[in-house]
Design goal:
The chain is of the alpha/beta class and about 150 residues long. About 45% of the residues lie in helices and about 20% in strands.
Length: about 150
């Protein structure tokens, strides 16, 4: 669930945050983006300090995050938003593993928080439930994690 104690989330008015969003499964990723973006604004991040980059799919999230972190003068964190739904082949396993490892490695290499807001579900219905449905919005949770990690990184 996306309920959280707003009083423990730091003020983001001095933060610069990137959001990389996969275009695949746009009904889901657009809802996650909306949750993350709205939450950043709610906690003081200025709209001009939020940079959104769209990439073709979840596999490209790591590269998009790397571009934002290396090509921008100041980027405090990047939130990676995607949705991979289980299919009939092992493609799901390879993509999920590659993205998780890529995001972790990028964060360790750069010393900047790179947040995993990628849904990895068995069905479209499960993804809907986690992108604004009964299980909250994982984009909101990614934004809160980014704000907290920037504070911890400070």
């Amino acid at each position: 669930m996306s309920d959280y104690d707003a009083s423990v989330v730091p003020d983001g008015s001095n933060y610069h945050i990137g959001i990389v969003v996969a275009e695949w499964n746009p009904e889901i990723t657009d809802a996650l983006l909306d949750g993350a973006y709205t939450t950043l604004l709610k906690h003081g991040v200025k709209a001009e300090n939020i940079e959104v980059m769209h990439v073709p799919g979840s596999f490209e999230l790591t590269t998009g995050a790397h571009i934002l972190l290396s090509k921008r003068e100041r980027m405090d964190a990047v939130i990676c938003i995607g949705c991979v739904i289980q299919g009939e082949t092992r493609h799901f396993d390879f993509i999920c593993s590659a993205v998780a490892h890529g995001i972790t490695n990028l964060s360790l290499q750069t010393g900047k928080p790179v947040i995993f807001s990628v849904l990895t579900t068995n069905t479209f219905e499960q993804a809907k439930a986690r992108s604004g449905g009964v299980h909250g919005n994982k984009g909101i949770e990614g934004a809160v994690a980014a704000l907290k990690m920037i504070r911890n990184n400070g």
